[in-house]
Every structure is written in C-alpha cells, then in structure tokens.
Amino acid sequence: MDIRFANDTYGYLQHDIGADDEDVRLLVGDAVKGEFPELSGDHYCYLSLVPRGMQDTKEIVMATLFEDGVFTVKRGVDGTEPVPHIKDTKVSVRLVSASLYALHNEAVANATVRMEAMFKLLGEQLNHYSEFLNADLPIRSGEDELNEDTLNEQAIVLSNKVDALTSALSTVATQVARA
Questions:
Q1: Which of 44, 91, 132, 179 is the most buried (most CB within 10 A)?
Q2: Alpha-carbon dihedral sign for residues 141, 143, 149, 152
Q3: DSSP of 160-175, one letter per residue?
Q4: Which ranges of the chain would DSSP assign to H, the alpha helix?
Q5: Sign of the CA dihedral 29, 30, 35, 36?
Q6: What does pTM read for this prediction?
Q7: Same domain flag for 38 and 54
Q8: Burial (CB count within 10 angstroms: exposed 0-12, middle 13-18, buried 19+), residue 51
Q9: CA 4, 5, 6, 8: dihedral to nearest 10 degrees?
Q10: What is the largest CA-CA distance in the chain?
C-alpha cells in the first residue's frame, strides 16, 4: 500500500453519517479547500473528523478511495472509535501517528527488498570467486618440503586473489546501492 498526503486540505460532511457508514460524502465547490489526494488501487490516506466548533479530532479514518466527492473509508483507526458525525463535520487530511508508522513500514519493506537483492548478488559473487581463490593453489602433502620461498609465492598469489575479490565485491555493492 502507498500512503498519500495533501497540504492543508479539508472539506465538510454533506450529511450525517452513522458509526457503521463506510462512505463519507463531502460538500463540493467552495466548501472544499485544497485538493484531496487521488486514491485508488493501493493508495490511501488518513482523515480526521472534527465536529464544527470543536478543536479535537473525534475519529480518524483510513480512506482507500475518493471519487466524485465520496471517500470510501475504514472507520475508527489509529486508536479512535467509530462514532456518528453530523452534517458540516470537518474532514481533513492530517498527519497522524498511523501515517508515520505506515511510512516507517514502507521504508523497512523497501530496505529489506534492497538488502535481499544485495545479499543475493554478493552470494553469487562469493560462490564465483571462491572457485577463483581455490584455483591454482597446489595441494601440499605432509611429505612435501615446505620452504620459505614457496610459502611466500603462495601467499602473494592468494593475496592478489583476495584483492581481486574485494574489488569485485565492492563494485557489486556499489551497483546494488544505486539500484
């Protein structure tokens, strides 16, 4: 789902609604200030319902559709209870705690997808380069005479391969970060 916002946008109920009503019809024309966000598919927004003459929100709803001045809503969200509202109750797009949790959850989900892609690429690169690291290193038996020159040569070969692997993994991580 994808949360939508609008700056300083509000309207007023066209008629009374009961606590179970899921359609919220607004007065149209000059009674609407600003532009409500387009809602369809996975888009939604949170609305505060505040009776005229009051300062405090009486109910928060999650709007999932807005067509022809009518919101389709899920009632009593973000710790509020569905209650009846009278005509001219103010309906406004507001930043509420549920909005912040939704943004947080979307960010975590996006980061998780990116991290999974990065780990998959890194895993593929590690598999590829582990074969590269192990290639060309002679297997030594206990009977082989180990001398300092042979060990130094093998250490240099292995060090070069580790440097190549580090460089390749760094390139992959950079590419994933840009994706």
A1: 91
A2: positive
A3: HHHHHHHHHHHHHHHH
A4: 97-134, 148-178
A5: negative
A6: 0.65
A7: yes
A8: middle
A9: 150
A10: 96
Q: Which of 95, 119, 141 is the last residue of a domain?
A: 95
7, 34 in Cβ contact below 8 A?
A: yes
pLDDT tens digits for range 106-147: 888 888 888 788 777 777 777 776 666 666 555 555 555 566
Cβ-based neighbours of 34, under 8 Å, separated by 6 or more? 6, 7, 8, 9, 10, 93
How many domains are contained in the chain?
2
CATH number, residue 33: 2.40.10
Cα radius of gyration (the chain): 30
**65 and 113 inside one domain:** no
Q: Which one, of 90, 103, 66, lies nearest residue 14 by Cα?
A: 90
* Cβ(10)–Cβ(48) below 8 Å: no
Using the predicted structure, report yes or no on whether residue 23 has a pLDDT greater than 70.
yes
Please give the single-letter amino acid code of residue 39. Answer: L
The first and second tokens of residue 120, run together, are 């998959």
Query: From CA 105, how far away is CA 111, in angstroms rounded?
Result: 10
Check: CB of residue 23 under 8 Å from CB of residue 48.
Answer: no
